[in-house]
Amino acid sequence: MFLTITSTSDRDEAPATDLGYLLHKHPDRAQKFGLPVGTAHVFYPRADATTCTAALLLEVDPIALVRGRGSRPVDGFSLAQYVNDRPYAASSLLAVALGKVFKTAISGRCDVRPELPGTPLNLEIEVPALPCRGDSDLARSLFEPLGWTCTVTPVPLDPELGWGDSPYVDLRLTGEQLLSDALSQLYVLLPVLDDAKHYWVTADEVDKLVRAGEGWLATHPERALITERYLRHQRWLVDDAAERFAGLEDAPPPESELLDDEAATSETRVPLATQRLDALLETLEACKARSVADLGCGEGKLLGRLLENPRYQRILGVDVSHRSLRAAARRLHLDDLPDRAAERIELRQSSLVYADPGLAGFDAAVLSEVIEHVDESRLPALASSVFGPARPGVVLVTTPNVEHNQHFGMSEGQIRHTDHRFEWDRATFQAWASAVAGQYGYAVRFQGIGAEHPEAGPPTQMAVFTLDPSSAAEVSR
């Protein structure tokens, strides 16, 4: 099995050989790695400033491949264990090799050059022999929605005899992508195209799929097909994955991707994201909260500020995204915190549209730039889980004010981020918040964040919900 990854560059400050840092494999050395089914080799056919190609060759041991399968024949005849395409055509074997050999690159970590994992590269990936159970359009339908230019060339059964095309293709992908995303996509989609796996699929595969598909699979137009094939059509696993991805659809992107995070108002020259954090912290301090749940914590900016203040004795960061939680853990240096500080903070994966008992018992909860990433039809479920079972004493909700967008130089109808499902004006936000407050027994007040325009109002609007202990309002569940 063979796969090549090529990076090209025409910039002196970003040579193509940066690929070696990301893969954690030096271009000047050939390396090999022992796997249960054979040996993986990594080498570089070319490595210079303009073009760098890394090759992964998986040398499969057919005996090791079938060892431990027992006496039951594979594919209907006894020699099929030894006479088949498995040692040669890319499949789940190659996907597993990718996951083992390039594990650090897939995780998006590069300790020597920490800025590189977040830099898109001009990439060309080729898999010359790939089983494609379906026509060549299947490969295009899987990769093109991810931003790849996809060239699929069927491999003929016999060029001389004219027997037509085999079920194998030569796949070539080109595009500007993060290397970690590209490897994660290959890890998932290679066995999907083959529609087979060389190992038994258990519940752990759902976790693997959710982790590897983070950031791209939840919204993929072929998600149902990908999930079915990756999980070998086992309905109970497919249903579990569908429920997990339903939560991921509501996950906001990392805060650093939002348009206004680095936008500074002309009066203060302070980034709006900083003004928003300051306003949240000031309000939390004024309400004398000592335990805070950051619901939709993203990369953990607010968590870091809370952790700095010893008054907050219990801090919870919640997000549906594994990747965001990993980023938050790195930002907070959780592995290096003193024991006393580590005891004060917890990170938790959860979807806000489902009731979670672990969110109960906090003085305050924060939903900062979260609700606009949730479909409006699912906002009642979010309100139910936050204001019902969780029922914190104070809830802070911030969201963009669409009336102010024109003052960011945006055209009419343009929104601040492509993942926003809506952006409300002040009247709509206040009507929604007032209805929620009345339903769940809270009082609510509103304030603006950022430099306020006389007509358009502030760039960010905040609702401060305070629980009325005397209220007998029923909690919708």
From TrEMBL:
Essential cofactor(s): Mg(2+)
UniProt EC number: 2.1.1.386
Alphabetized Pfam families for the sequence: Hen1_L, Methyltransf_12
UniProt name for this protein: Small RNA 2'-O-methyltransferase
Reactions it catalyzes: small RNA 3'-end nucleotide + S-adenosyl-L-methionine = small RNA 3'-end 2'-O-methylnucleotide + S-adenosyl-L-homocysteine + H(+)
SUPFAM superfamilies documented for this protein: S-adenosyl-L-methionine-dependent methyltransferases
Annotated source species: Kineosporia mesophila
Record PANTHER family: HEN1, SMALL RNA 2'-O-METHYLTRANSFERASE
Domain Hen1 N-terminal: 1-245
Keywords for this protein: Magnesium, Metal-binding, Methyltransferase, RNA-binding, RNA-mediated gene silencing, S-adenosyl-L-methionine, Transferase
Top EC category: transferase
Family per record: Belongs to the methyltransferase superfamily. HEN1 family.
InterPro entries assigned to the protein according to its UniProt record, in alphabetical order: 3'-RNA_MeTfrase_Hen1_bac (IPR024026), Hen1 (IPR026610), Hen1_N (IPR024740), Hen1_N_sf (IPR038546), Methyltransf_12 (IPR013217), SAM-dependent_MTases_sf (IPR029063)
Keyword Nucleotidyltransferase: no
Domain Methyltransferase type: 294-384
Membrane-crossing segments per the record: none
Keyword check for Membrane: no
